[in-house]
Design goal:
By secondary structure, the protein is of the alpha/beta class. It is 63% helix and 6% strand. It has a five-stranded parallel sheet with strand order 2-3-4-1-5.
């Protein structure tokens, strides 16, 4: 990269003895700030024995909590504000690994005002080092300006980009030596910007007979046609013109994804949904339709075409491979591709939105460790797809918001969960109106979140609205109505309003027994909830058979290792403990704890609750 001296200078600035060192790598877009930070973290990893956290500042709180969760640090108290939660995580990180220096990288701090807003999130411990990438000149922060590459480094980067083909290196060496002056002039015209040089070098690698002077002339012609174009954009335009229609279409599709690594299987899923969305739906349509007509707008349906398109984008440095089956766009490149997507190209947008919706629908309310590991790389792309919910069918349009919210809620990242559930409520009201069933679902989900946080005053009116809509739209005896009754009754039970809770629980149980099979999971839920109410009132003989029935159903329908089975075991154990039947309670608590440790993780609130219950039993 020709950045070796920058790496040395950056390391010197960050190693400031026994005090907190904050350094900003500054420069214009395309200068290579993020690239330099990545190389620095990789090259000097051994100097940060306590660890390195890479934080995209637009998701600072979420990313800090994710790192803390990954390190199995104690979660911050729920009542803390965002800044306090972040400081808590810093503190627990320092306590968990007291020796050694640790590095935090804040990538893409927008401007001075944005940096000022981030002041409460700055680490204060002198064992921390903070590296910031930004285009702004930040006050009171030592800076490493990245104006441009030095001429020799720019020339070296151009040489490296053209030098990929090992079979033709001797020929390439002769080409470089014969046009040293022209190569240097080309780099200078590009402003010695690493991104522009990389793209142009890749273009020249694909055009071995194109002279450097001719390349510069082409770029200059682009800028003459559009005076607003920067050299880096002119380079993008030339490379864009080299792409065939299928390759351009893939680039447009990639511009829809978030600015984080893209698992390639998500791209394949989006393309596959383009196929499914427009293929003939029934026998007669298939019989009288030509095979190419339904999908002629999509040029990527043949797997070989999709793979060739990907290879071409990579070969031209328009797309980077950053891991096994993972690819990344530079921020400027993503912006360029997104601008190429025509307003009428809703086919690609719909394929993207439906594919991300399908992923979101696999996220359950109870998020296990396996679920987190599976969907975490996709979450930013699910968030990006929420803009296109208007292209998703009505019955599925809320799945993206709900799935993302449950992902965060399952990890106790309450603020993010609340944001997405509120966004879901607004989206369903706007699309369907205030009395639609989808709106009732969004109200119910937001109320569930508030209930889990003990925010009962905010939850109750939402539950009541949801129940009214469900009763009016689906009828008083519909199973979904039973769920609404259960949730409202649970709120009353948590507040000690047992007289109001019991009739609602009984209504819910009667509905599920009459409308569903006797061993349906919703029936188990109703049994479990009513039993919990009876236990809270000391009506143990009425509670026990209900708990036993619920446990049998959950084991049968969901499996012995499901988190809901752990809940049933825990509840039955609590009943036995309340009756002084300690020898019967202990093995049930232990079984529930094993399930929650394996399925939810050591630091999940439900695991902590289970540990607390078991400790309480032993204390007695």
């Amino acid at each position: 990269m020709g950045r070796s001296q920058d790496l040395i200078d950056l390391h010197r600035l960050l190693q400031q003895g026994d005090r907190l060192a904050i350094t900003a790598a500054t420069g214009m877009g395309g200068i290579g700030k993020t690239d330099l930070a990545w190389h620095y973290a990789e090259q000097y990893q051994a100097d940060y024995a306590a660890g390195i956290w890479w934080i995209a500042v637009d998701q600072l709180v979420v990313k800090v909590l994710e790192y803390a969760l990954r390190m199995e640090l104690p979660p911050p108290p729920e009542q803390f504000d965002e800044a306090a939660k972040v400081q808590w995580c810093y503190q627990k990180w320092a306590e968990a690994i007291p020796q050694g220096v640790r590095l935090i990288i804040w990538d893409d701090v927008g401007d001075v005002e944005a940096y000022r807003c981030l002041q409460p999130f700055l680490p204060t411990d002198d064992r921390f080092r903070l590296l910031i990438t930004t285009r702004a000149n930040l006050p009171e922060v030592q800076q490493l300006p990245l104006e441009t590459l030095p001429p020799l480094a720019a020339y070296q980067l151009l040489y490296e980009q053209i030098h990929f083909n090992r079979d033709k290196r001797a020929e390439i060496d002769r080409r470089i030596l014969a046009e040293q002056t022209e190569a240097g002039a080309l780099c200078k015209w590009l402003g010695d910007l690493p991104l522009a040089i990389r793209v142009v070098g890749s273009f020249l690698n694909a055009e071995p007979d194109l002279l450097f002077a001719e390349m510069q002339q082409r770029l200059q012609a682009e800028t003459v046609q559009n005076e607003a174009l920067l050299p880096v954009e002119a380079a993008f335009n030339l490379s864009w013109a080299k792409l065939n229609p299928a390759e351009q279409q893939l680039a447009k599709l990639l511009g829809l994804f978030a600015l984080v690594p893209i698992p390639w299987k998500l791209v394949e899923a989006a393309v596959e949904h383009c196929r499914q969305l427009f293929l003939p739906r029934n026998f007669w349509q298939r019989l009288f339709s030509k095979a190419v007509e339904p999908v002629q707008w999509c040029l990527l349906l043949e797997p070989g075409t999709l793979e060739r398109a990907r290879r071409q984008l990579v070969s031209l440095s328009l797309l980077s491979r950053v891991g096994s089956e993972q690819y990344l766009l530079h921020a400027l490149m993503r912006q360029f591709f997104a601008a190429k997507l025509e307003p009428e190209a809703d086919g690609l947008r719909q394929g993207f939105a439906v594919a991300m919706t399908e992923v979101a629908q696999t996220i359950p309310l109870t998020v296990t460790l396996d679920v987190i590991a599976r969907v975490k790389p996709a979450i930013p792309h699910l968030e990006a797809a929420t803009v296109y919910t208007y292209l998703v069918s009505g019955e599925d349009c809320d799945s993206l918001h709900i799935g993302v919210a449950w992902f965060y809620q399952g990890q106790s990242v309450w603020q993010e969960a609340e944001h997405w559930l509120k966004a879901c409520r607004e989206m369903t009201i706007k699309r369907f109106g205030e009395k639609h069933f989808a709106t009732a679902t969004s109200l119910n989900n937001l109320a569930l979140l508030y209930s889990s946080q003990g925010r009962y005053g905010e939850a109750e009116p939402l539950y009541l609205q949801s129940l009214d809509i469900t009763r009016s739209q689906l009828g008083p005896d519909y199973p979904i109505t039973a769920l609404s009754l259960n949730n409202l009754a649970g709120l009353y039970r948590a507040q000690g309003r047992y007289g109001e809770a019991e009739p609602l629980y009984l209504q819910a149980l009667n509905i599920t027994r009459s409308q569903l099979e006797s061993d349906h999971p919703i029936t188990a839920l109703s049994l479990n909830n009513l039993a919990g109410l009876y236990r809270a009132q000391g009506r143990y003989s009425e509670a026990e058979p209900l708990y036993l029935q619920a446990l049998d159903i959950t084991r049968l329908q969901l499996g012995a290792e499901h988190p809901n089975t752990a809940l049933s075991l825990n509840n039955l154990a609590a009943l036995y403990e309340s009756q002084g039947r300690y020898s019967e309670a202990e093995p049930l608590y232990l079984q529930a704890l094993d399930i929650r440790r394996s399925q939810l993780g050591l630091d999940h609130p439900n695991t902590a609750s289970n540990l607390n219950n078991l400790a309480g039993l032993y204390h007695v």
